[in-house]
Amino acid sequence: AQKVTQAQTEISVVEKEDVTLDCVYETRDTTYYLFWYKQPPSGELVFLIRRNSFDEQNEISGRYSWNFQKSTSSFNFTITASQVVDSAVYFCALSGGGTSYGKLTFGQGTILTVHP
Amino acid sequence: GAVVSQHPSWVICKSGTSVKIECRSLDFQATTMFWYRQFPKQSLMLMATSNEGSKATYEQGVEKDKFLINHASLTLSTLTVTSAHPEDSSFYICSARASGGAWYEQFFGPGTRLTVL
User: Fold this and answer.
1) Which residue does chain B place closest to A33, by CA atoms?
2) How far is CA A54 from CA A28, A32, A103, B21, B60, in A?
3) Which helix (H) or strand (E) holds A104?
4) A7: which residues sit within 8 A by CB, 6+ positions away?
5) pLDDT in tens, B12-67
6) Are residues B8 and B109 in contact, defined by beta-carbon separation less than 8 angstroms?
7) Nearest-CA distance A17 → chain B (Å)
8) What digits encode the pLDDT tens for the residues A34-52?
9) Contacts of A42 in chain B (CB under 8 A)
10) CB pairs under 8 A between A and B
11) A44·B111 Cβ contact <8 A
12) Could you say which DSSP state residue A28 is in?
């Protein structure tokens, strides 16, 4: 069975602060993909990043960066110099290639509020 | 590319009525579509996997007679909530996997907010 844990239910920061959203996963599959999605108040999921289990390189995209560590089964997401527009719910998700083939398992989500 | 639409975007209905939600892949064919449900301030939970031309596969705990899924074409899947009750009020999101596409890639629709009075 797959499991994704986002231990931080809510995070509140002031604009320009850096913030890291934690994600820990469990899977028995050797091939799997990890995702981060943003869900603004409108509800529509916005895809942020996908990472496969064989690529542990960290990635940076503008103010966003991701740290994938298989040794600790973590895929953490950092927003640098946060902005009010970053306020949203962020979900980490896992898709395994084994018996769960292609099914996405989502974490509980982290509500990020960035204050001006 | 890879746009998925849902209709309606929101619906309010009376308890006991049935509601149909459509999920369409607009610019690609989708052999497989997924239906998720999201209660307020909670995560997305997979309800069922819909394959074109065959019966849907439901996740444990999801009543297949209550949530009827039909995937009649490569671009359309429908979810019908039968005899809806207030506890069925939720945000329903579909996603689609492109025919011949990567097994891990899903494109999400914008969601449908259902309120049952």
Assistant:
1) B104
2) 14, 8, 19, 38, 31
3) strand A104-106
4) A22, A24
5) 999 999 999 999 999 999 999 999 999 998 999 999 999 988 899 999 999 999 99
6) no
7) 24
8) 999 999 999 999 999 999 9
9) 110
10) 49
11) yes
12) S
| Selection from A101, A103, A85 nearest residue A46 by Cα | A85
Asked whether the beta carbons of residue B43 and residue A109 sit closer than 8 angstroms, the reply is yes
- For B64-77, the pLDDT digits (tens) are 999 999 998 999 99
Assess whether pLDDT exceeds 70 at residue A57: yes
Q: Which has more pLDDT, B8 or A1?
A: B8
Give B105's contacts in chain A (Cβ within 8 Å): 50
Backbone angles phi, psi at A85, to 5 degrees: -70, -10
Q: Give the separation between CA B38 and CA A114, rounded to whole angstroms.
A: 23
Structure tokens at A96: 């395994």
**Mean per-residue pLDDT of chain A:** 94
The DSSP-derived string for B19-33 is EEEEEEESSS-EEEE
C-alpha separations of B96 from A8, A75, A99, B3, B24 in Å: 29, 24, 19, 9, 8
Q: What is the pLDDT of residue A99?
A: 65
Q: Per the structure block, which two tokens stand in for B72?
A: 């009649």
